[in-house]
Amino acid sequence: PGHPTIGVSYNNLGIVYERLAEYKKAREMYQKAYEIWHKAYGNENERVATALDNIGSAYDNLKEYKKAEEYYKKSLEIRVDLFGENHKSVAQSYNNIGTVHYFLQNYDKAIENYNNALQIQIQIHGEEHAEVGTTYNLLGTVIWLESAKQYFMRELEIRKRVLGSAHLDVAACYINLALVWHKEGLYDKALENFNR
Question: How far is CA 20 from CA 32, 37, 68, 80, in A?
Fold first, then answer.
């Protein structure tokens, strides 16, 4: 029952469950794969890092971002030890950690991790590569959200003072803020701003 190929089967089942949006079952399968691989290979192995990364992904999908970050960081540590900083898997780990920080609204940390991934990807692939494009998109989204929110809030303050709360341009500010909150997944805040 503890042979590494059984770990592959558990990992594959985890992938299927994750695609079916059954994230708790996916996490359980990834955990079983991790236990088998860790016992067979020790800590310094790509399969072990992959299992940890996959467990992090399941927690990410369950919106348990702190737990996801914990597993993504363990995976990153192993990957850096195995491959050094300039490796595709290391870049993937940085992107995953960046995404957790994005959802936690720790935008500075999200940007830092996305930039780490981007630098590695550019070194490996050059500028003209799909993975580089994806990371630019992630960076653009987090930078847009953070700066857009600041500008829209400042605009709202000014327009309310200058035009009064009942002006149509003030309503447009609330709509812009609602769109930002919606993009961040903060639906209650988005609805609150739409209803103003």
Answer: 19, 24, 19, 31
